Amino acid sequence: MSAVRIGPYTLHNGLILAPMAGVTDQPFRQLCKRLGAGLVVSEMVTSDMSLWNTRKSRMRMIHEGDPEPRSVQIAGGDAQMLANAARANVELGAQIIDINMGCPAKKVCNKAAGSALLKDEALVTEILQAVVAAVDVPVTLKIRTGWDRDNKNGLTVAKIAEQAGITALAVHGRTRADLYTGVAEYDTIAAIKQAVSIPVFANGDIDSPEKARYVLDATGADGLLVGRAAQGRPWIFREIDHFLRTGEKLPALDLIEVEHILLEHLAALHVFYGDVMGVRIARKHVGWYLATLPGAREFRARFNRLEDTEAQCANVQGFFAERYKSLTGDGEWVAA
């Protein structure tokens, strides 16, 4: 996969960590970038600046130390609020603004934001024009293929986006009604790619190097967004990048390297969030990392009752020590 440009920025590859609320915080972004992602995008930030004083919003808006270019996703349904939020985020260090018109979550769609916006093409136009005019950094857009199977207007929205000055477009190959079920429609992404001249990134079900190659071939996309498949497996970017460049698969990670990455991630979460919050947030990440290993379910039940950082680290080390003892081969990590 060749390098991709977004405005003045050239990404070393077209593999992007998809923004996921509650997942793509700063520790995870930094880890995925180090492990091969060409771009990482922050968690979704509301455009309602009256809500920015909450601890959750403040944590989502820390960009110092983030790998550049720093891309920040904003969400909302009011053009002027989104424009103001874009401007404020640029002042806080954002170098790319990403607009969310892809999130299917009810609490987002019920506020006429996320993928709910796809219902109203006039409002889409107003929002995109307002945000592009408000900032002098690239503005990108994330969409789905439409609201439901009978209202698939992703192609129209893509053309609106290009005309409004959007720099790059990410398309999740499902409608809002599909949520995350069924099979992603790569043919729609291919049609959108053919219809516009801005970079198009494909999103949906990209969970292996082979699938990445298939999706690129099927869509003609300039790059890929990887979301859920990176949870507990941030090295997937390195695996995909190597496969796309060489046609060969990297050997599976051994347990020692997995343990090292997980402990590094844990330490970063504890530092970033502090002890109480860090311990809580670490629980889901540990669950994802260990999901495919024997004994993980029983371990997770115990791990989720731990209340301090030292105990978490010690228990993770103990879990891996047990796995090493039971290995008969070369310590190979077998991922699902």
TrEMBL record:
Catalysed reaction(s)? a 5,6-dihydrouridine in tRNA + NADP(+) = a uridine in tRNA + NADPH + H(+); a 5,6-dihydrouridine in tRNA + NAD(+) = a uridine in tRNA + NADH + H(+)
Pfam (any one): Dus
Q: Which CDD domains would you find in this protein's record?
A: DUS_like_FMN
- Keyword vocabulary terms for this entry: Flavoprotein, FMN, NADP, Nucleotide-binding, Oxidoreductase, RNA-binding, tRNA processing, tRNA-binding
InterPro entries recorded for this chain?
A: Aldolase_TIM (IPR013785), DUS-like_FMN-bd (IPR035587), DUS_fam (IPR001269), DusB (IPR032887), DusB-like (IPR004652), tRNA-dHydroUridine_Synthase_C (IPR024036), tRNA_hU_synthase_CS (IPR018517)
Top-level taxon: Bacteria
- Provide any one GO MF term from the record: tRNA dihydrouridine synthase activity
Residues at which FMN binds: P19, M20, A21, Q73, K142, H172, N203, G204, D205, G227, R228
Enzymatic class = oxidoreductase
Location of the active site = C103
UniProt EC number: 1.3.1.-
Span of domain DUS-like FMN-binding: 16-317
Q: Which cofactor does it need?
A: FMN
Family, as annotated:
Belongs to the dus family.
Q: What does this protein do?
A: Catalyzes the synthesis of 5,6-dihydrouridine (D), a modified base found in the D-loop of most tRNAs, via the reduction of the C5-C6 double bond in target uridines.
| Protein name, as recorded | tRNA-dihydrouridine synthase B
Q: Which species is listed as the source?
A: Pseudomonas fluorescens
Gene name, per UniProt, is dus
